[in-house]
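Quarterly update from the structural biology core.
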Amino acid sequence: MTSMVIDAPSRPLRLTTGPIPEPTGTDVLIEVAACGVCRTDLHVADGEIAARYPVVPGHEIVGRVIALGPDAADIAVGDRVGVPWLGRTCGTCPYCRSGRENLCDHPTFTGATRDGGYSSHVIADARFCLPIPEGYDDAEAAPLLCAGLIGYRSLVMAGDGKAIGLYGFGAAAHIIAQVAVWQGRSVYAFTRPGDRQAQNFALKLGCRWAGGSDQPAPEPLDAAIIFAAVGALVPLALKAVKKGSRVVCAGIHMSDIPSFPYADLWGERSILSVANLTREDGRAFLDIAPKVPVRTTVTRFKLDEANEALAALREGRLEGAAVLIP
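Predicted structure, tokenized:
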């Protein structure tokens, strides 16, 4: 088995080789065909979220099952499956028992607290694997498993408003913009100031308007989703939304939110965060994606080019998403 490993925060990933593990319990062994590169992987690499080191990152995994643990059910050798961020939950805490497994008190996260998909093979819990819809090749499907899933949960939490702002136009926004347009909404894309490439990309995907995050919205928004990990965008988004509207912070990590006048929040505006995902989120979004149909824009990297892929993501040099191909 070949893997790219993070030994400790702020260190480059290193290439390792070792034996292919055997699945136990409800786990399955998957031969990885593609793994998306997510901003959360940067947070793991930088030590900004809880992880155990050394760890193999990556939680947008597409592959084929090649071996089953003795208790794995409803899955077969040869199945093409996706492995998302939520790797396992306890099933017994109050959140799990009330249908909110995304808030589980004792979760396991793929690519952070269990090894992920920057590898030729990965062990995953069969109960948390998702079927990949037809019509997507492996690389095109990979970003659906976090950029798509978390983006979709964020869109649902934003409510049914017609005018929606997306702050940060990367992997997640380029997927969710397509879903929102398909739903009949007007989408406004806010990018890094001066990033004409991202703005043109947003317009090509059907957004009504695209401009810098330092620009005012062309009309009052019914909701805003912040995909960029920049806390300073929260006060800007609050100014852009109507009374009674929501600002959804979609990332697992964000820089500190600066202070802002209470008047910008008043009027029953609200700020809320998205935490992880549920398996139901996964099933719902992967059912919708081919109906839109969502088309992902990906740049492929070899597995041993993982450091280059992360650097491209960090520097904003990607259109759409980066995907590693073992």
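The chain has a mean pLDDT of 97.
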